[in-house]
Amino acid sequence: MNNIIVSEKEIQILYEQIQKDAETSGYHLNTDDNFVKDLIKGLLINLKRYGYQSCPCRIANGIKEEDTDIICPCDYRDDDLTEFGCCYCALYTSSEDIIKGNKKVISIPERRPAPEQRKIIKDMKRADKISSLPLPVWRCKVCGYLCARENPPEICPICKAKKERFERFI
């Protein structure tokens, strides 16, 4: 699987989809189309390799349940955009200065905890989710949407993230 082939058509289709989703979320894509298309090619390679679009700038381990935080758009995107004006891989931007070319995209620190820390955080969240509510509350890790039901929705009604992007909130 080292020679995964991605066509220009596949790249263009995903490019248009991601661009539409970014604008719907109030963000923009990096203005360097070649850079963006290289990242999109990486997303498509990871989709074919693992079955999900993990961030091409991070190392996925191929276990979806352990990589859901880095499925694009990753869990760290919004905080990165707020603090730095772009996300870790620089696919998304929110800075008008970056969009207009007045400011360059800079390298930003990695927010994703190390694997050992992710396990501790996951275990702590699980222990804290005790509630007297009749139904569990699910949170979309992409946009923050909350819903109370037996299982998370198949698709987030706000940002269109898939079911695996939800976490049990309470």
What can you tell me about this protein's structure?
By secondary structure, the chain is mainly alpha-helical. Helix content is 38%, strand content 8%. It contains six helices and five strands; from the N terminus they run αβαααβααβββ. It has a three-stranded antiparallel beta sheet with strand order 4-3-5, with no helix packed on it. Strands 1-2 form a two-stranded antiparallel sheet. A hairpin with a 5-residue loop joins strand 3 and strand 4 (146-148). Helix 1 (8-24) crosses helix 2. The mean pLDDT is 89.
Shape: globular
Overall mean confidence score, pLDDT: 89
Number of domains: 2
For the sheet with most strands, the description reads:
3 strands, antiparallel
- CATH topology name of the largest domain, in short, is Ferredoxin Thioredoxin Reductase
Strand order of the largest sheet: 4-3-5
Label the CATH architecture of the largest domain.
Alpha-Beta Complex
β-sheet strand percentage: 5-15%
Number of helices, where a helix is a run of at least 4 consecutive DSSP H or I residues: 6
Order of helices and strands: HEHHHEHHEEE
Class by helix and strand content?
A: mainly alpha
Comma- or semicolon-separated keywords:
single chain; 170 residues; Ferredoxin Thioredoxin Reductase; Rubrerythrin, domain 2; 2 domains; globular
Could you provide a short overview of the structure?
By secondary structure, this protein is mainly alpha-helical. Helix content is 38%, strand content 8%.
Question: How are the secondary structure elements laid out?
Answer:
Blueprint: H1 8-24, E1 28-29, H2 33-50, H3 64-67, H4 77-84, E2 92-93, H5 96-99, H6 115-127, E3 137-140, E4 146-148, E5 166-168
Antiparallel strand pairs: 1-2, 3-4, 3-5
Helix pairs in contact: 1-2
